[in-house]
Amino acid sequence: MQHQEALSPADQEKLDKKISEWLSWDQYEPTRTEIQKMINEKRFPELGARLLTRMSFGTAGLRGSMGPGFAHMNDLVIVQTTQGLVKYLLSVSAGVKKQGVVIGYDNRHNSERFAQLAAAVFVTHSIPVVLFSKICPTPFVPYTVLKNGASAGIMVTASHNPKEDNGYKVYWDNGAQITSPHDKGIAAAIEQNLQPWEGSWKIDTKNPLVIDELEVILKSYKEDLAKMSLYRELNATTPVKFVYTPMHGVGQSYIMDCLSVFRHKPFISVEEQKNPDGDFPTVRYPNPEEGKSALDLAAATAKRNSATVILANDPDADRFALAEKQEESWKIFSGNEIGTLLGWWMWHCYQQTNENNVDPKNCYVIASTVSSKVLRSIANAEGFHFEETLTGFKWIANRADVLRKSGKTVLFGFEEAIGFMCGDFVLDKDGVSACLIAAEMIAWLNNQGSTIQQQLDTLAKKYGYHVSNNSYFLCHHPPTMNAMFQRLRNYEGSGTYPKTCGRFHVEFVRDLTDGYDNEQPDNKPVLPTSKSSHMITFTFEEGIVATLRTSGTEPKIKYYTEICGKPGQGSREELENVLDELVASLIEEYFQPEKNNLKAKSD
């Protein structure tokens, strides 16, 4: 083959091998044709980018842009990944041929076919598959794994990522996302099983090993959901009007179907966004966390219908967003604020349900370490337990699994990125249950003469104001990210972290990448460490905690800051001003956006 001079002989040889593999293995005509077209047009640097590296499999599974090549999401990569998962399951899960696996998918382009291909691969080794017959919320897969006692689950989704992306999310037999060492074991098995097996491309949804239990699971899910509802009469009579948007995703039919469980009156739909559409035509990003721009149509719908509350799910319905009309504007609540409300509400409901047998010492709430500490303050005051985990819902869910297996009651888990787990009947963030439970909470608050914001203020006065300021910078150049964090680790000479940030004084540093925490007697952090991403937390003498971390799924450097006040100490505005000052210094001194060519988040 003829190549551009820019490729070295060694790279030419490697690329020739990968081109040959692709054309030999890929049986999906559109991606085969596209690779062949690049060859014909001698676009070898592009071929190299697509074929010389492959998507890395980790605890988040796979997530990336769709297209031909081992570096992207496509049929061949799905087949190879599933072959690795099959081989790994056969090696570690003795009952997999009896217990089987669960596979679901969202409404993104190619999701259904990817799910069917995955099922075909399992069938080659006589492993039974529950393959849902239509799009479903992501939490339905971990729910079904738990309900059926399956060996594993797969959800084909890229959640709230851009329309060009898709993903492959793996759950273990405990109903929680995989953690180490399963990710490494699966990744190794993928590399050892790259050549497609006979039958791996034979999609056959009529195969007796492939069954659909979606209706059975939906019925069971609604029965478990019903246990979370205590105020059906209020729901049926509340004057509060709710607008709901699924953000062009899977949520509409499932939310509407589950309304009867709570006796909620019909939510007002955002007509332009209620139908599943993998192009997400009305939003720049299908992510309600992105703020006002994502909820513009919901606000317009609310105005036309005199509604005062917006409820939103992201496209795969595992996240939940909330907004409330306040005079002429909308207050979009942060993940920390929603977590505060739902955490308090789950404690309230537990007390009502167990009125004569309340045992707070047996109760737990869980939050990721970059989320607000407000539930810690509530837990300390009320006598139940608060625990922190690493960032990512897999850690929250796996910790919840350990706690409940030891006889504890897990009331709630959350992460600031609008992910909420109400109870423990789904061991993952669940935007369906969060949406319906939040609506009941709001109906109850209205009956008490309170709004959502007023309840937040009431909780702040009782437990102390907790003010957060979280955002991110975009960075598409990993070496720049690495250099930025290495600079922080060698700030004033080798192995020294910053001692100040503006006028603020660093008291403790915890580096979960390098395994350092000077708050601990042995300088070793309590939480697990990982070299796969950067994460440093600074605790300041002035009562502020700031965490800087790289995202595992997006080209972002995120920061999370919080100042924790005590009951009766300082106003919200005073705390906000102090925190804003710290964030400004943090950006200028630690991020150095101009020098590092970082692009700030824009709404």
For the CA atoms, what is the radius of gyration? 25 Å
Per CATH, the class of the largest domain reads Alpha Beta
Number of domains: 5
Kindly report the CATH topology of the largest domain: Alpha-D-Glucose-1,6-Bisphosphate, Chain A, domain 3
Structural category: alpha/beta
**Tally of DSSP β-strands:** 23
Strand content: 15-25%
Q: Report the end-to-end length measured between terminal Cα atoms.
A: 47 Å
Uncertain segments: 1-5
Helix content: 25-40%
Per CATH, the architecture of the largest domain is 3-Layer(aba) Sandwich
What's the average pLDDT? 95
Global outline = globular
Which sheet architecture does the biggest sheet show?
8 strands, antiparallel
* CATH superfamily caption of the largest domain: Alpha-D-Glucose-1,6-Bisphosphate, subunit A, domain 3
Put simply, the count of helices is 20
Pfam families: PGM_PMM_I (PF02878), PGM_PMM_II (PF02879), PGM_PMM_III (PF02880)
GO cellular component, one term: cytoplasm
Domain Alpha-D-phosphohexomutase alpha/beta/alpha: 55-193, 221-325, 351-463
Protein name: Phosphoglucomutase-2
